[in-house]
Amino acid sequence: MTMGTTTTQAYGEPAYWDNRYALDPGPFDWYQKYPSLSPLLHLYVPSSSMSQTLVVGCGNAALSEEMVNDGYNNVINIDISSVVIENMQKKYRDRPELTYIKMDVRDMNEFQSGSFDAVIDKGTLDSLMCGTNSQQNAVAMLQEVGRYVQTSNDHLNK
């Protein structure tokens, strides 16, 4: 993708991610690693046995595994790349606390409204802003994510 005289990666395009994960299957954490994020997650993301956390654009980051190691029991991960999802499903087949699903964050109709206690995004919104129709894609993502976050934590007190 070219913007003016600057060439940027096609981060907003699914084919970019399939190719990236096929060529470089090793774990990669965008921006920050879990130890830097854990104080914020402990403050804002419930870790009870009843809570469900959604990680959008999970890639092959260690974030979800480290969350489970830290006491989170139900971490659902979605990514648009079938390559990375297949790899992560194989890698964590013996970790029932981790679920990996190929899904576009702009269309999460497989989930029921209010399915999650928290949604974590470390870079998906930025990636969508690099693709075609970036504003529409960003709005679609935020609207979809908003539909699936619980508005109350009453169920945690049961």
From TrEMBL:
GO terms for biological process, alphabetical: methylation
The keyword Methyltransferase belongs to this UniProt entry's keyword annotation: yes
Superkingdom: Eukaryota
Pfam families, A to Z: Methyltransf_11 (PF08241)
Descriptive protein name: Methyltransferase type 11 domain-containing protein
Listed GO MF terms: S-adenosylmethionine-dependent methyltransferase activity
Organism per entry: Aquilegia coerulea (Rocky mountain columbine)
Family according to the record: Belongs to the methyltransferase superfamily.
Domain Methyltransferase type positions: 54-140
Keywords from the UniProt entry: Methyltransferase, Transferase
SUPFAM superfamilies xref list: S-adenosyl-L-methionine-dependent methyltransferases
